[in-house]
Specification:
This protein has about 230 residues and is of the alpha/beta class. The protein is about 35% helix and about 15% strand. Strands 2-1-3-4-7-8 form a six-stranded parallel sheet, with helices on both faces. It has a two-stranded antiparallel ribbon with strand order 5-6. Strand 5 and strand 6 form a beta hairpin. Helix 2 packs across helix 3 and helix 2 runs antiparallel to helix 6. It is globular, with a radius of gyration of 17 Å.
Length: about 230
């Protein structure tokens, strides 16, 4: 059965020296999500592009996400349980570091995006790889989200944000973890996981639809509270 490995970079993208770019070149079934402005971390827009790529991908989809891309990926995955076979979430960014319209600069002015993420178990196997020295996510917060999502937590040691800056170009652990994730799925009928009970979520019932609604509402409130130009 044909399968797809979908690469989802994080905030500011994954350049040619990044381990995600290396992994993409190693796997013939890999493709990178497109249509995203990597310098503008809008959760609803990113999740929408990830979901679009899931729909366009052949067969079952294995998502390999990094940083803010992890947040977008879990939103998209819960809307496509019949397509997403597993999630490899590497160095997720703390949801409280972002608001609906981007990086959260003023905690007093807006809430983080954590409340818009799945609050219970994800619909597929997931691994969360975390670093003890990650400036974007503390160990306590990582454990909290891993427990909430039912993710297997993997300690990468003092690995920074697991990116180029922390020395993670070619990263042999990445394909190894992806294979372990695939193995953990066992005999699931990948790409057609109980279609009568796990159909795509559409309309107002979907996670992305709710996120988009809240983003539009937040944007409207932000506009009405902005000081007028004299």
């Amino acid at each position: 059965m044909r399968q797809t490995v979908l690469i989802v970079p994080g905030y500011r993208g994954s350049g040619p020296g990044h381990w995600q770019s290396w992994l993409e070149g190693e796997l013939p079934e890999a493709r990178r999500v497109g249509g995203i402005d990597w310098d503008t971390p809008l959760l609803a827009r990113w999740a929408g592009e990830v979901r679009r790529e899931i729909d366009a991908s052949a067969g079952a989809v294995w998502i390999v996400a990094h940083s803010f891309g992890c947040l977008a990926s879990v939103v998209a995955a819960v809307d496509r349980p019949q397509k997403v076979a597993g999630l490899l979430l590497v160095a997720p960014a703390d949801p409280e570091r972002f608001e609906l319209l981007g990086v959260r600069e003023d905690p007093q002015r807006s809430a983080g995006v954590g409340r818009f993420l799945p609050q219970s178990g994800l619909p597929c196997p997931s691994f969360m790889v975390v670093s003890r020295s990650d400036p974007w996510l503390s160990q306590d917060v990582a454990h909290e989200w891993a427990e909430r999502w039912g993710s297997r937590l993997i300690d990468a040691g003092d690995a920074g944000h697991i990116n180029v800056e922390s020395g993670h170009g070619p990263w042999p652990l990445a394909p190894s973890l992806l294979q372990q994730l695939r193995d953990s799925a066992g005999d699931l009928p990948l790409g057609m996981i109980a279609p009568d009970q796990r159909a795509p979520l559409r309309g107002r019932s979907g996670a992305l639809a709710r996120l988009r609604h809240q983003t539009r509402r937040f944007l409207s409130l932000r506009r009405t509270t902005m000081p007028s130009t004299p």
